[in-house]
Amino acid sequence: MTLREILHSKGHVVHTIGSSATLEDVVLKLVRNNCGSLVVCEDPGHPESAPEGRMIGIITERDILKALAAHRASLATIRVIEVMSSKLVTASPDDSVEDTMGLMTEMRMRHLPVTEGNQLLGLVSIGDVVKMQHNRLTMENHYLKSYIHG
Question: Which residue segment(s) compose the domain that 45 sits in?
Fold first, then answer.
């Protein structure tokens, strides 16, 4: 099983936010979309602007908690670019579920962008990976039991 299969079943929707948004904007968008992370894209027109829509980081619930503990400021005063994770780890759509599970565990990450070339194809969570692995093992178990009893 590959990440391409996970994205095929769950979809390719990725929620994004601009780098100049505030953490208040992030929290509202996370709640509205019932998700745990947003891919950060460079804002168009920013002086050091990258090509429009280019992924420059990711911001997660954990990043927000760390920022609140460190800054002790209002969410409305802290910008995404100040606290986002910019050292991006990405995966390929052809990566196996098993390898991805190991990578996410080793790196202690719960959200992993899936890219092909410079294109963002989707985002997988540790929950997506565990669900796919569980489904595979359940099916395998069913077939083994059928074989033994059949």
Answer: 3-149
**Beta strands 16-18 and 37-41, pairing class:** parallel
CATH number, domain containing residue 13: 3.10.580.10
Name the nearest CA neighbour of 143 among 4, 97, 135. Answer: 135
Separation CA 134–CA 127 (nearest Å):
10
| Furthest-apart CA atoms within the chain: distance in Å | 68
Encode pLDDT of 21-75 as tens digits: 999 999 999 999 999 999 999 876 554 444 456 899 999 999 999 999 998 889 9
**DSSP-assigned states of every residue in 53-86:** T-EEEEEEHHHHHHHHHHH---GGG-BHHHHSB-
Does residue 106 carry a pLDDT above 90? yes
